[in-house]
Write a structure and sequence with these properties.
The complex is a heterodimer. By secondary structure, chain A is α+β, with helices and mostly antiparallel strands. Chain A has five helices and 25 strands. In chain A, the strands form six sheets. Chain A has a five-stranded antiparallel sheet, with no helix packed on it. Chain A has a four-stranded antiparallel sheet with strand order 1-2-3-4. In chain A, strand 3 and strand 4 form a beta hairpin. In chain A, helix 2 packs antiparallel against helix 3. Chain B has two domains: 76 residues, Orthogonal Bundle (Rna Polymerase Sigma Factor, Chain: A), CATH 1.10.1740; 75 residues, Orthogonal Bundle (Arc Repressor Mutant, subunit A). Chain B is 65% helix and 0% strand. Chain B has eight helices and no strands. In chain B, helix 1 crosses helix 4. The longest helix of chain B is centred in the first third of the chain and has 26 residues. The termini of chain B are far apart. The chains are: A alpha+beta, B mainly alpha.
């Protein structure tokens, strides 16, 4: 008869031998270990500064750390940030508790673990700080993957750049390059009947390129705009930027001494719009729309953004007959802007000063005839 | 860290990853948690690689981190681990299709205190000696002996196991 211990060995061997062996996250471990080591050096350098000795050695240590930091060292613990840890699950496993992306931060103001997760019960996709707050960033009904590879959605919140995508069944991994040079490999995980990838990074860090693979075969590479993937191209195919034009510029009184500007870039992906509010503490605005979304029965707004309520920017499209728009303000003034053609589609962009109330709007042809109009400002139709 | 040490560590890691994940599974009963523990421990080992690579037993270093990290998981305030809002989709995360006997053993292991569970996995799966187990756990040999005895006693009468650890019908 087998003894207790021999029997236990036998049964343990069978139990643990059945544990599946997934892909080995070498890159993730090396990066995480490197960042831990850098964090230790930074703390050591801070101690030297506090002691007021060996300033030269401290500066050398800071120089090495500076590549990974965006702010001065003091105080150390409040400036330290960790780049996202990619959780690597065995392919086809379910995402643990629906979590498809996770990042940790010990930055100023926000400490803890941030996650993007899928809740199959509510059908919603959330982004939030664990144990504190969550934001709804999407839904299962609007997260189908369109096309051959993946369709990414924006999940930016607070101090984090987030994105997630449902991926095609044959995608085994995505390798994304960030603007800081870091490469992140994402392995899709299953949740709510689909396969997903997600990425969380500090606000200043975002994806600039990426490749999708089925095993060793490259399926395609992605073009990004403002950190968000907008289209996939086949292996070796180069994206064609058809046209890039400035569609609006100007000054906003009492807001900034610099001109704001808005640009549209047209390509196979549709139109990508960027707005620079020309203020050091306001983030640029990015949005990409398809040709179908740009089409308008008359005039519409595709973006109505009011960063920190400093001013209001309207960006929109118009039919070919429209030469300019005019908005009438309650104080008796008006704002008039021309439309600008980008690859055959008319766009406009204008800024409304804080406090100005728009009474009505009108769209005019080259002869000055009003062709469209309405109460308030042009309707927003994303 | 230089490229040479990265290559050396990569070889160390790839040769041990699967075994460490299985060890982590023995500690946690969950594949996802096991992989997390393994990643964390290996990252820390890499951070200290110039010292770890010269140690007599780098594997023991990594296993000790995994055991301690697993203990810390339960010491941390629960609220920091919980997501707000409705419970997410619990599609048996971290499980796999184990046979019935293995499932019963898993349940019995998870019913053991963390320390006893670690001793069971180290002694009876990795076949470490009492001294090696003590080194991995950072405790005394006497402690390992008593933990092992208590764990076996609990497993003998475990309700999760069909006939306990000792099968009288063999």
């Amino acid at each position: 008869m087998l003894t207790d211990e021999e029997l236990l060995r036998d049964r343990l061997g069978r139990l643990l031998g059945q544990v599946p062996a997934g892909p080995i996250p070498v890159d993730a471990v090396l990066k995480r270990g490197t960042n831990m080591r850098i964090g230790h050096r930074v703390i050591a350098a801070a101690a030297v500064i506090v002691a007021g000795a060996a300033i030269a050695a401290a500066v050398a240590g800071l120089g090495h750390m500076r590549r990974h930091q965006t702010a001065p060292v003091t105080p150390i613990t409040r400036q330290r940030q960790r780049f996202p840890v990619q959780r690597v699950f065995k392919l086809a496993d379910h995402a643990r508790h629906g979590v498809i992306a996770e990042g940790t931060s010990k930055g100023e103001g926000w400490n803890g673990t941030w996650r993007i997760w899928i809740d199959a019960h509510t059908g919603k996709i959330y982004d939030g700080l664990v144990g504190f707050k969550r934001w709804t960033v999407g839904s299962l009904s609007k997260s189908e993957h369109v096309g051959a590879i993946a369709t990414f959605h924006n999940a930016n919140i607070e101090a984090w750049t987030g994105t997630y995508a449902a991926v095609a069944p044959d995608v085994t991994r995505l390798v994304v390059t960030l603007n800081n040079g870091q490469k992140v490999t994402m392995y899709p995980v299953a949740a709510a009947g689909r396969r997903w990838v997600g990425l969380l990074t500090p606000m200043s860090v975002y994806a600039v390129s990426g490749h999708a693979y089925a095993g060793h075969t490259e399926l395609g590479h992605m073009k990004t705009f403002g950190g968000l993937p907008v289209t996939w191209l086949g292996p070796g195919q180069t994206g064609l930027l058809v046209q890039s034009r400035r569609i609006g510029t100007g000054f906003v009184p009492m807001h900034s001494r610099q001109r704001w500007w808005a640009v549209v870039q047209a390509g196979p992906w549709g139109y990508c719009i960027s707005l620079n509010p020309a203020s050091y503490d306001l983030d640029p605005f990015y949005s990409c729309i398809t040709p179908a979304q740009a089409a308008s029965p008359g005039v519409k707004a595709v973006a109505d953004t009011r960063p920190k309520e400093r001013a209001r920017w309207l960006i929109g499209t118009a039919r070919p007959s429209v030469a300019y728009l005019r908005l009438d303000i309650a104080d008796g003034t008006s704002i008039q802007v021309p439309t600008v053609a980008v690859d055959g589609q008319l766009f406009y962009a204008l800024a409304i000063v804080r406090g100005q109330v728009v009474v009505s709007w009108g769209a005019y042809d080259p002869a000055g005839h009003r062709v469209y109009g309405g109460i308030g400002s042009p309707p927003v139709q994303p | 860290m230089g490229g040479g040490s990265a290559e050396e560590f990569t070889e160390f890691m790839t040769g041990r990853w699967h075994a460490l994940v299985r060890f982590g599974y023995g500690l946690t009963g969950d594949v996802g948690l096991a992989e997390d523990l393994t990643q964390t421990a290996l990252a820390r080992a890499y951070a200290a690689w110039p010292k770890v690579r010269l140690a007599a037993d780098p594997d023991a270093y990594v296993r000790r981190i995994m055991v301690n990290s697993n203990r810390s998981r339960f010491r941390a305030p629960r609220v920091s681990e919980h997501l707000t809002g409705s419970p997410p989709d619990f599609a048996i995360a971290g499980q796999f299709s184990a046979d019935e006997d293995a499932t019963a053993l898993r349940a019995a292991l998870l019913a053991l205190p963390i320390g006893q569970r670690a001793v069971v996995v180290l002694r009876y799966w990795l076949d470490l000696s009492e001294a090696e187990t003590a080194a991995a756990l950072g405790c005394s040999v006497g402690n390992v002996k008593s933990q092992a005895a208590r764990a076996l006693a609990k497993l003998r009468v475990s309700a999760e196991l069909v006939n306990g650890v000792c099968r009288a019908d063999r």
